[in-house]
Design goal:
Monomer. Associates with 30S ribosomal subunit, binds 16S rRNA. It is an enzyme of class 3 (hydrolase). There is one protein chain. This protein has 10 helices and 15 strands. The protein is an alpha/beta fold. Strand 12 and strand 13 form a beta hairpin. The radius of gyration is 23 Å and the shape is flat. The structure holds guanosine-5'-triphosphate and zinc ion (ZN).
């Protein structure tokens, strides 16, 4: 196992030098659970904790290590190390923390490509696909669309879906496969490059685990069934969160990743619908919302049939959701501030009465 096998490259070496981290060992975080980490490198696999300095200088959850991070470490013995710092991330997939509304939770970092997995049977949904694209843009991850279970429909139906995708989504590779017959596997193996890092976004049951197992060459994860039961009587699927595939690609698949997609589209919308982005440069008003403005190039394109109506509707819907999310965060901050003020006055009041 070399660092390169884990995805290390010249770019990272440069970052390591720029950040004066030559004196430390380097490793990649391959799993994280409640601030306990596992870091892997050419010397082995280590349980890890962060230094007090890293903890106290962290302003938010985003400053803590996440799966996929490259970290500067000091190795203490054959299975323990301390994490000093995190190398700057090239990408990060995050979601809103369900517990603490408004707080961002990083799911995985330094991902090059996301496989957007949808099954062609009941699961296929264009809006969800566009939502995944939004997440990719916001996360700085390149998307690859993967359609699974093509063995369940006939060739004609597959072509129809491919056509539908191509009219709505431009410049994103689409691969249709069957995990059952392994049709299309040559194509998916061809897009997975050695040393590049991948993740999968897709609903439950679309075949992500089956695909992962097949690409890794050995079973990493049991599919369709629950693989292990803990002493607490709770069932968990136990598997590695960062897997090196047979052809050298690296695949991150952690539990948090499976929740991504029901998350909010907070940014990158304009880019996802890159057509809309480009069109909006010709809108009469700079702050055009593309809903009812005179001289709106987007509305014009819809009317002329140059822009798909459903795409436009979906764009408006996502914009509304985004506005809603942003206003709830702002409202929460305002509430917190008001509460703080109230507590201050209350305390003043009490002191006065003393
Ligand atoms: N016919 C057919 N069945 C498939 C295909 N891929 C997966 N399946 C089946 O679909 C079921 C779900 O597959 P999984 O690989 O567990 O799906 P998953 O996306 O990992 O699901 P979660 O673990 O719930 O997120 C299993 O019974 C698989 O055997 C396929 O290409 N064709
Ligand atoms: Zn407009």
């Amino acid at each position: 196992m070399t660092l390169e096998d884990l995805g290390y490259n010249d770019q990272l070496e440069k970052l390591r030098n720029e950040n004066n981290l030559k004196a430390f060992d380097i490793g990649r975080v391959i799993s994280e659970h409640k601030e306990r980490y596992v870091v892997k490198n050419d010397k082995g696999e280590f349980e890890a904790e962060i230094t007090g300095h890293l903890r106290f200088s962290s302003k938010s959850r985003e400053d803590f290590p996440a799966v996929g991070d490259w970290v500067a470490i000091t190795i203490y013995d054959s299975d323990f190390c301390i994490i000093h710092s995190i190398l700057p991330r090239s990408s990060a997939i995050s979601r809103q923390d369900v517990g603490k509304f408004g707080e961002i939770q990083i799911i995985a970092t330094n991902i090059d490509y996301a496989l957007l997995v949808q099954a062609v049977d009941r699961d296929f949904n264009m809006n969800r696909l566009e939502r995944y694209l939004t997440i990719c843009n916001a996360s700085k991850v390149d998307p690859i669309i993967v359609l699974t279970k093509i063995d369940l429909i006939d060739e004609h139906q597959t072509l129809e879906i491919l056509e539908k995708i191509k009219t709505r989504i431009k410049n994103v590779p689409v691969i249709a496969i069957s995990n059952e017959s392994q049709d299309g596997y040559d194509k998916i193996k061809a897009v997975i490059e050695k040393g590049k890092t991948y993740c999968m976004l897709g609903s439950s049951g679309v075949g992500k685990s089956t695909l992962l197992n097949n690409l890794s060459g050995k079973p990493v994860m049991q599919t369709g069934t629950i693989s292990q039961s803990t002493k607490k009587g709770k069932h968990v699927t136990s598997h590695r969160e960062l897997v090196i595939l047979e052809n050298g690609g690296i695949l991150i698949d952690n539990p948090g990743m499976r929740e991504v997609g029901i998350a909010d589209p907070t940014s990158g919308l304009e880019m996802t619908f890159d057509v809309i982005g480009r069109l909006s440069q010709n809108c009469k008003f700079k702050d055009c919302t593309h809903t009812n403005e005179i001289g709106c190039a987007v509305i014009e394109a819809v009317e002329k049939g140059e822009l798909d109506h459903a795409s436009y509707e979906n764009y408006l819907k996502l914009e509304r959701e985004k506005a809603h999310f942003e206003s709830s965060v702002a409202e929460r901050r305002k509430r917190d501030k008001e509460f703080g003020k109230m507590m201050k006055n209350y305390k003043k009041d009490i002191n006065r009465k003393k």
